[in-house]
Amino acid sequence: MAVRSASFAVVAAVAFTGGLFVGNTSSSSAAVIKQLPLLSDGLDATADSQTDLSNFWKEWNALQKNFVQTHASNTLPSAEEKVYGAMEGLASSYKDPYTIYMPPKESEKFAADIAGSFGGVGMEIDMKNGVLVVVTPLKGTPAETAGIKTGDQIVAIDKKPVDGLTTEQAVAKIRGPIGSTVDISLVRNGKVMTIPVVRAKIEVPQTEDTLDQKTGVYRIALFQFTATSVNLFNEALSRFKASGSDKLVIDLRGNPGGYLDAAVNIASHFLPKGTTIVTEDYDGKDTNKVHTSLGISDISSKVHVVVLVDGGSASASEILAGALKDNHVATIIGTRSFGKGSVQQLIPIGEGSLKVTVARWVTPAGVWIMGNGITPDIEVPYTQKDADAKIDPQLDRAKTFLTTGQ
After folding, report:
1. Which residues, other chains included, contact 101 with Cβ-Cβ below 8 Å and sequence gap of 6+?
2. Catalytic residue (choose from 152, 209, 281, 326)
3. CB-based contacts of 259, cutoff 8 Å, min separation 6
4. Known catalytic residue at 173
5. Which is nearest to 152 in space by CA: 130, 174, 131?
6. Which of 9, 171, 173, 286 is 20 to 30 Å from 16 by CA-CA measure?
7. Helix (H) or strand (E) holding 379
8. d(C-alpha 178, C-alpha 124), whole Å
């Protein structure tokens, strides 16, 4: 069956978790590369004549000749596995946490991840400044129940340090049989702690909405941008309209993202047709793609809107928040969002896959989401002390803003 490359419709910060056989061990890089088979998948297999690979083959041959097993677990890699390792190293040399080569097994896990229901602990993790961090524990999952928090730094999984692991590799280690326990060691506020979490089947959370009778503020919380989020948001929006309220809070805190189409569709309720929502900037390597409002535009201009964000709001959440902020239809309250704003393309290579960053997300006002996130119009922290006291200063500030205008 022919394979093809495909651009992601998924823009989540979540980490998801062939081959060529090279048999000639000649020290001449040019001679060996020319003997690589042409791929039948339409990819360019032409050798780069400017690159000297002689040292690579020297290393290959030196390992082949000299390596001696010292542990029973040190099973010798096949030629195919060696090539997979080299391909992983090539991708990692770009020093982009989202550009990785996935050998066949990891590629299969990735496909399972984007299906929306999976086994694990229920948290989104990502790499930030070279450190594995928790983007957010998903609502109602074992990770949230165990007390894992947004911003926790992961230092070990089952007592094994995560140094050198990609996000996908860390996810693979966190996963396991339903009902089993994984020990996750974290750094929080400078202190190291180990939290045992019982794995479970994770169902992607949906939405919740409610009217505050005292203030007249209607809150719609969206926990992910899934394939069903649009319909669920539409239903909540219908209940908002029926309530008679003109004060709306869209709560995106702890929402790690999901489908771009869902973010565009939801933003289209608030923006006229053709209004820019987000731009895919390809840095001149391809034509930029501008995603615009579908023009549903069924929210009255008399409705005042606040969007809540925090460090757990990422990718599609940032696209929605940035679009509403830059087009001046919502006020953003909370803390700076995560800052996951790049586009990946999945390119099947043999039985594995190359996930490569091909573009960056730019808000209507020209802000790079990647690394910057969305800056709130009104900065309001939410501390552990607040959580312990069961108060929500961010939501309270939103209600005050919507009822007083200040």
Report:
1. 84, 87, 88, 90, 91, 349, 352, 353, 354, 355
2. 326
3. 9, 10, 11, 225, 226, 227, 229, 316
4. no
5. 131
6. 286
7. strand 378-379
8. 18
d(CA 242, CA 245) in angstroms, rounded, equals 8
Cα(7)–Cα(194) distance, rounded to whole angstroms?
38
Instruction: Tell me if 220 sits within 8 A of 210, measured CB to CB.
Output: no
| Annotated catalytic residue 353 | no
| pLDDT by residue, tens only, the chain of 406 residues | 333 333 334 443 344 222 222 222 222 222 222 233 334 467 888 989 899 999 999 999 999 999 988 877 678 899 999 999 999 999 999 998 889 998 887 777 666 655 545 568 999 898 888 899 999 898 889 999 999 999 999 999 999 999 988 888 898 899 888 899 999 999 999 999 999 999 998 876 679 999 999 999 999 999 988 888 999 999 999 999 999 999 999 999 999 988 899 999 999 999 999 999 999 999 999 999 999 999 999 999 999 999 999 999 999 999 999 999 999 999 999 999 999 998 888 888 888 889 899 999 999 999 999 999 999 999 999 998 998 899 999 999 999 999 999 9
List 302's β-bridge partners, or say none. Answer: none
Of residues 173, 182, 225, 232, the one with CA closest to residue 204: 225
| Residue from 29, 268, 315, 337 carrying the catalytic annotation | 315
Mark whether 315 is an active-site residue. Answer: yes
From the list 340, 353, 355, 399, the catalytic residue is 340
